[in-house]
Amino acid sequence: MPNLLGPGRAEALNGISFRLKLRQQPKAARACGFGDRDRRVIDPPPIVQLVVESSTMTDDEVRSYLRYESYVMNCSICDETGSKDASFMPEEYQHQRRLMGSLVGTPFVGQDDRGDEGCFFCFSDLSCRTPGAFRLKFTLIMIDPARAGAVRHFPILTETMSDVFHVYSAKEFPGMLPSSDLAKKLKEQGCIISIKKGNDRSKNARGQDELSEMDEDEGESSQGHRKRRTVRE
């Protein structure tokens, strides 16, 4: 792990801990099948917050690790128990993966809807090919740019699992939820995350899909092109 405190404070790193908190859980998705033309995202988009704690570091030292730019978070899909990886498809579709989209997230440091600064990873471009009940697994690593050329694999700092979410067929999908206050607040500060008004499919003829993505902001780029912005005190 990179020492951001300087050589005189290296021993303080012994008391640091990292954990992940799901600030926004995935709830539902419409299965997108095996083509890319009609892909719909998991709703609401998962938002993961990094929490750094230490009994041996000052608040400013802890904040330096929250604002570190070279964290990388990976998202994968598991069965509803969380014990089995569900990324791979049946043999006839073995060259495709169940989870699609931007599976790697980078940090966005800003204020949440309560005005507290935090380090967030937003996954607003995830889709699932098949119906079923699943969980998402989020894994965090910390890249040391000074050693990136010599180190092939950096260790996992921490990981967490989402609650169970359900993927529906087009006719059964209940519709999109309106965006949360947290998502709106992060977007106001420069985080690229889709903002939706939501819609209730129960009020429409089942099987009509055209409304499910209409409220997405125009011009949104994928998460892979998301720019990082830090809100300083």
From TrEMBL:
Which keywords fit this entry according to its UniProt record? Answer: Nucleus, Sporulation, Transcription, Transcription regulation
One GO term describing the cellular component: nucleus
PROSITE patterns associated with the record: VELVET
**Which InterPro entries does UniProt cross-reference here?**
Velvet, Velvet_dom, Velvet_dom_sf
- Localization (cell): Nucleus
The organism's place on the tree of life at top rank:
Eukaryota
Chain segments carrying region Disordered: 197-233
Q: Which residues form the signal peptide?
A: none
Q: Where is the composition biased (Basic residues)?
A: 224-233
Q: Where is the composition biased (Basic and acidic residues)?
A: 197-209
Locations of Acidic residues compositional bias? 210-220
GO terms, biological process: sporulation resulting in formation of a cellular spore
Residues covered by the Velvet domain: 13-196
Which Gene3D superfamilies has this protein been placed in?
Velvet domain
Q: Which PANTHER family match?
A: SEXUAL DEVELOPMENT REGULATOR VELC, SPORE DEVELOPMENT REGULATOR VOSA
Annotated protein name in UniProt: Spore development regulator vosA
Identify the species of origin: Purpureocillium lavendulum
